[in-house]
TrEMBL record:
InterPro entries with a match to the protein in the record: DUF624
Lineage: Bacteria, Bacillati, Bacillota, Clostridia, Lachnospirales
Keywords annotated in UniProt: Membrane, Transmembrane, Transmembrane helix
Annotated Pfam families: DUF624
Top-level lineage group: Bacteria
UniProt name for this protein: Uncharacterized membrane protein YesL
Annotated source species: Anaerocolumna xylanovorans DSM 12503
Membrane-spanning residues: 22-49, 70-91, 103-129, 150-170
Amino acid sequence: MSSIFNLDNPFFTGLNKIVDAFFLSIIFLITCIPIVTIGPALTALYYATAKSLRRDRGYVSKEYFKAFKMNFKQGLVTGLIVMLMTVILIVDWNYAKRLHGNLGVVLFTIFTALMVLLLFVSIYIFPILSRFKTKLGQLFKTAFFMSIRHLPSTILMVIIIAFFALLVYLIWIPILFTPALCALLISFLMERILKKYMPPKADEEEKGGVDEWYLE
Protein backbone atom coordinates (compact mmCIF):
# COMPACT_ATOMS: atom_id res chain seq x y z
CA MET A 1 0.00 0.00 0.00
CA SER A 2 2.82 2.38 0.86
CA SER A 3 4.20 2.03 -2.68
CA ILE A 4 0.98 3.47 -4.08
CA PHE A 5 1.56 6.76 -2.28
CA ASN A 6 5.30 6.79 -2.93
CA LEU A 7 6.09 10.03 -4.79
CA ASP A 8 8.82 8.21 -6.72
CA ASN A 9 6.50 5.65 -8.29
CA PRO A 10 5.84 5.88 -12.06
CA PHE A 11 2.36 7.38 -11.63
CA PHE A 12 3.44 10.37 -9.56
CA THR A 13 6.61 10.79 -11.61
CA GLY A 14 4.55 10.91 -14.81
CA LEU A 15 2.02 13.29 -13.21
CA ASN A 16 4.83 15.58 -12.13
CA LYS A 17 6.20 15.60 -15.69
CA ILE A 18 2.78 16.59 -17.04
CA VAL A 19 2.49 19.45 -14.53
CA ASP A 20 6.02 20.62 -15.36
CA ALA A 21 5.25 20.49 -19.10
CA PHE A 22 2.11 22.56 -18.55
CA PHE A 23 3.94 25.09 -16.37
CA LEU A 24 6.88 25.37 -18.77
CA SER A 25 4.55 25.84 -21.75
CA ILE A 26 2.68 28.65 -19.95
CA ILE A 27 5.93 30.44 -19.09
CA PHE A 28 7.06 30.10 -22.70
CA LEU A 29 3.80 31.48 -24.09
CA ILE A 30 3.84 34.44 -21.68
CA THR A 31 7.42 35.39 -22.56
CA CYS A 32 6.51 35.12 -26.26
CA ILE A 33 3.74 37.72 -25.98
CA PRO A 34 5.99 40.64 -27.06
CA ILE A 35 6.72 38.56 -30.23
CA VAL A 36 10.25 39.98 -30.54
CA THR A 37 11.31 37.86 -27.54
CA ILE A 38 10.54 34.59 -29.31
CA GLY A 39 14.27 33.96 -29.87
CA PRO A 40 15.35 33.91 -26.21
CA ALA A 41 12.05 32.18 -25.34
CA LEU A 42 12.72 29.29 -27.75
CA THR A 43 16.30 29.03 -26.49
CA ALA A 44 15.15 28.90 -22.87
CA LEU A 45 12.37 26.43 -23.71
CA TYR A 46 14.80 23.94 -25.19
CA TYR A 47 17.33 24.39 -22.38
CA ALA A 48 14.78 23.90 -19.59
CA THR A 49 13.15 20.98 -21.40
CA ALA A 50 16.41 19.13 -22.05
CA LYS A 51 17.85 19.79 -18.59
CA SER A 52 14.89 19.81 -16.19
CA LEU A 53 11.94 18.15 -17.89
CA ARG A 54 13.95 15.32 -19.40
CA ARG A 55 16.89 14.87 -17.04
CA ASP A 56 15.36 16.15 -13.77
CA ARG A 57 18.07 18.74 -13.13
CA GLY A 58 16.71 21.71 -11.23
CA TYR A 59 13.30 23.37 -11.49
CA VAL A 60 11.83 24.15 -14.90
CA SER A 61 11.04 27.78 -14.03
CA LYS A 62 14.49 28.47 -12.59
CA GLU A 63 16.32 26.87 -15.52
CA TYR A 64 14.02 28.59 -18.03
CA PHE A 65 14.63 32.11 -16.73
CA LYS A 66 18.33 31.38 -16.26
CA ALA A 67 18.67 30.49 -19.97
CA PHE A 68 16.30 33.31 -21.01
CA LYS A 69 18.45 35.90 -19.25
CA MET A 70 21.79 34.37 -20.27
CA ASN A 71 20.91 34.21 -23.98
CA PHE A 72 18.60 37.22 -24.17
CA LYS A 73 20.73 39.55 -26.30
CA GLN A 74 21.91 37.00 -28.87
CA GLY A 75 18.57 35.17 -28.81
CA LEU A 76 16.73 38.44 -29.44
CA VAL A 77 18.89 39.33 -32.45
CA THR A 78 18.74 35.76 -33.80
CA GLY A 79 14.96 35.62 -33.44
CA LEU A 80 14.52 38.98 -35.18
CA ILE A 81 16.73 37.88 -38.08
CA VAL A 82 14.78 34.62 -38.48
CA MET A 83 11.45 36.49 -38.35
CA LEU A 84 12.63 39.08 -40.90
CA MET A 85 13.89 36.38 -43.25
CA THR A 86 10.61 34.51 -42.85
CA VAL A 87 8.53 37.58 -43.73
CA ILE A 88 10.71 38.38 -46.77
CA LEU A 89 10.53 34.81 -48.08
CA ILE A 90 6.75 34.61 -47.58
CA VAL A 91 6.27 37.86 -49.53
CA ASP A 92 8.58 36.65 -52.31
CA TRP A 93 6.95 33.20 -52.34
CA ASN A 94 3.46 34.73 -52.72
CA TYR A 95 4.73 37.01 -55.47
CA ALA A 96 6.30 34.08 -57.35
CA LYS A 97 3.11 32.05 -56.95
CA ARG A 98 1.16 34.70 -58.89
CA LEU A 99 3.62 34.80 -61.77
CA HIS A 100 2.91 32.89 -64.96
CA GLY A 101 5.32 31.06 -67.23
CA ASN A 102 8.71 29.52 -66.64
CA LEU A 103 10.00 32.45 -64.57
CA GLY A 104 7.18 31.99 -62.09
CA VAL A 105 7.90 28.26 -61.77
CA VAL A 106 11.64 28.86 -61.25
CA LEU A 107 11.16 31.60 -58.67
CA PHE A 108 8.45 29.64 -56.86
CA THR A 109 10.76 26.61 -56.65
CA ILE A 110 13.69 28.71 -55.41
CA PHE A 111 11.69 30.50 -52.70
CA THR A 112 10.06 27.24 -51.59
CA ALA A 113 13.51 25.65 -51.21
CA LEU A 114 14.77 28.68 -49.27
CA MET A 115 11.77 28.51 -46.92
CA VAL A 116 12.47 24.83 -46.25
CA LEU A 117 16.13 25.59 -45.55
CA LEU A 118 15.16 28.42 -43.20
CA LEU A 119 12.87 26.01 -41.35
CA PHE A 120 15.73 23.52 -41.04
CA VAL A 121 18.06 26.20 -39.67
CA SER A 122 15.41 27.51 -37.27
CA ILE A 123 14.97 24.06 -35.72
CA TYR A 124 18.67 23.82 -34.84
CA ILE A 125 19.68 27.40 -34.15
CA PHE A 126 18.03 27.86 -30.75
CA PRO A 127 19.12 24.51 -29.25
CA ILE A 128 22.66 25.29 -30.45
CA LEU A 129 22.45 28.74 -28.86
CA SER A 130 21.36 27.15 -25.58
CA ARG A 131 24.42 24.88 -25.55
CA PHE A 132 27.30 26.71 -27.24
CA LYS A 133 28.82 30.16 -27.08
CA THR A 134 29.46 31.35 -30.62
CA LYS A 135 29.28 34.43 -32.82
CA LEU A 136 26.09 35.18 -34.72
CA GLY A 137 27.41 34.31 -38.17
CA GLN A 138 28.92 31.05 -36.98
CA LEU A 139 25.66 30.22 -35.22
CA PHE A 140 23.73 30.29 -38.51
CA LYS A 141 26.48 28.40 -40.34
CA THR A 142 26.56 25.69 -37.68
CA ALA A 143 22.77 25.33 -37.70
CA PHE A 144 22.76 25.01 -41.49
CA PHE A 145 25.62 22.48 -41.44
CA MET A 146 23.99 20.30 -38.77
CA SER A 147 20.57 20.38 -40.42
CA ILE A 148 21.96 19.10 -43.72
CA ARG A 149 24.46 16.65 -42.25
CA HIS A 150 21.77 15.07 -40.07
CA LEU A 151 19.01 15.35 -42.66
CA PRO A 152 16.98 12.25 -41.60
CA SER A 153 16.75 13.57 -38.02
CA THR A 154 15.95 17.03 -39.36
CA ILE A 155 13.03 15.66 -41.37
CA LEU A 156 11.73 13.78 -38.33
CA MET A 157 11.84 16.99 -36.29
CA VAL A 158 9.95 18.83 -39.02
CA ILE A 159 7.26 16.13 -38.87
CA ILE A 160 7.04 16.46 -35.07
CA ILE A 161 6.65 20.24 -35.29
CA ALA A 162 4.10 19.94 -38.11
CA PHE A 163 2.06 17.45 -36.08
CA PHE A 164 1.86 19.72 -33.03
CA ALA A 165 1.19 22.79 -35.18
CA LEU A 166 -1.71 20.99 -36.87
CA LEU A 167 -3.01 19.81 -33.50
CA VAL A 168 -3.07 23.36 -32.15
CA TYR A 169 -4.62 24.64 -35.38
CA LEU A 170 -7.48 22.13 -35.11
CA ILE A 171 -7.93 22.28 -31.32
CA TRP A 172 -6.36 25.32 -29.64
CA ILE A 173 -6.49 23.97 -26.05
CA PRO A 174 -3.40 21.69 -26.45
CA ILE A 175 -1.29 24.83 -26.87
CA LEU A 176 -1.09 24.81 -23.06
CA PHE A 177 1.04 21.64 -23.30
CA THR A 178 2.42 21.44 -26.83
CA PRO A 179 5.45 23.80 -26.60
CA ALA A 180 7.14 21.71 -23.88
CA LEU A 181 5.99 18.34 -25.27
CA CYS A 182 7.20 19.25 -28.76
CA ALA A 183 10.56 20.42 -27.37
CA LEU A 184 10.80 17.21 -25.33
CA LEU A 185 10.31 14.96 -28.36
CA ILE A 186 12.74 17.02 -30.41
CA SER A 187 15.34 16.80 -27.60
CA PHE A 188 15.59 13.02 -28.04
CA LEU A 189 16.84 13.61 -31.59
CA MET A 190 18.64 16.89 -30.99
CA GLU A 191 20.65 15.75 -27.97
CA ARG A 192 22.14 12.83 -29.89
CA ILE A 193 23.32 15.32 -32.50
CA LEU A 194 24.61 18.01 -30.14
CA LYS A 195 26.51 15.44 -28.11
CA LYS A 196 28.63 14.62 -31.17
CA TYR A 197 29.98 18.17 -31.15
CA MET A 198 30.73 18.35 -27.42
CA PRO A 199 34.33 17.83 -26.27
CA PRO A 200 34.82 14.43 -24.57
CA LYS A 201 35.10 14.62 -20.80
CA ALA A 202 38.70 13.40 -20.95
CA ASP A 203 39.72 16.36 -23.15
CA GLU A 204 38.08 19.05 -21.07
CA GLU A 205 39.69 21.12 -18.35
CA GLU A 206 38.76 20.39 -14.78
CA LYS A 207 35.17 21.52 -14.34
CA GLY A 208 35.26 21.91 -10.57
CA GLY A 209 32.08 19.97 -9.88
CA VAL A 210 29.98 21.43 -12.69
CA ASP A 211 27.05 19.19 -13.59
CA GLU A 212 27.70 18.07 -17.18
CA TRP A 213 24.16 16.80 -17.65
CA TYR A 214 24.34 17.28 -21.44
CA LEU A 215 26.99 14.56 -21.77
CA GLU A 216 24.79 11.83 -20.29
